[in-house]
Every structure is written in C-alpha cells, then in structure tokens.
Amino acid sequence: MNQPTRYIKPKIDEIPKEILDLATAVNKLPPEVREQVDPIMAQVVESTKRRRRILTLVQDALSQLRLDMKYLMFDLEATRRERDDYRRQVEEGT
C-alpha cells in the first residue's frame, strides 16, 4: 500500500528538507488521516514556495540597490572632482 507522493518534486532547495520529510511522513499515514492532513500540508508547501520566491526577490532587489549605490557614489565623487576643478579654474582666471 505504498502510494507515490502527491507533491510534485520541486527544484532543488526550493523547499526545505524538513518539509519534504514531513510530506513523506504524511504520505505514510492511513488514508482517512491523510485526507485531513493533505490540504494543510499543501498549504504549507505553497506558503514555503511563496516565501522562498519573496526572499529571492528581496535579495535581488538588495543586490540591485547596492549596485545602484556604487554607481551613485562614483557619480558623486566625479561631480565633486569636476566642481573642484571648475573652482580652481575660476580662481586662477580671476
């Protein structure tokens, strides 16, 4: 009476091993108990996937923000150098 798992195997690291282990344990439960637990387990799996996607989006956004900050700091320094050069030229011209 070994039923195959009802949960689609996700990409590696998409769902923590503990939740996959829990899904395996749920699949070993008697059918009447499994029917009650399956919807809850499916919700847990979906919420975990959603959290993982959100975390990835946040990490990507932070990486982009860091890169943008580096460009802004570079631009600020270049603008300051240009300002200082212009001041020197104005002071030398007068």
Task: Characterize the structure shown.
79% of the residues lie in helices and 0% in strands. The longest helix has 63 residues, at 31-93. It has 94 residues and is an all-alpha fold. It has one domain (17-93). Mean pLDDT is 88; it is low at 1-5.
Shape: rod-shaped
Mean pLDDT: 88
Radius of gyration computed on alpha carbons: 28 Å
Strand content: under 5%
Care to give the gist of this entry?
It contains 2 helices and no strands. With 94 residues, the chain is an all-alpha fold. It has one domain (17-93).
Walk me through the topology.
Blueprint: H1 17-27, H2 31-93
Helix pairs in contact: 1-2
Characteristic terms for this protein:
94 residues, mainly alpha
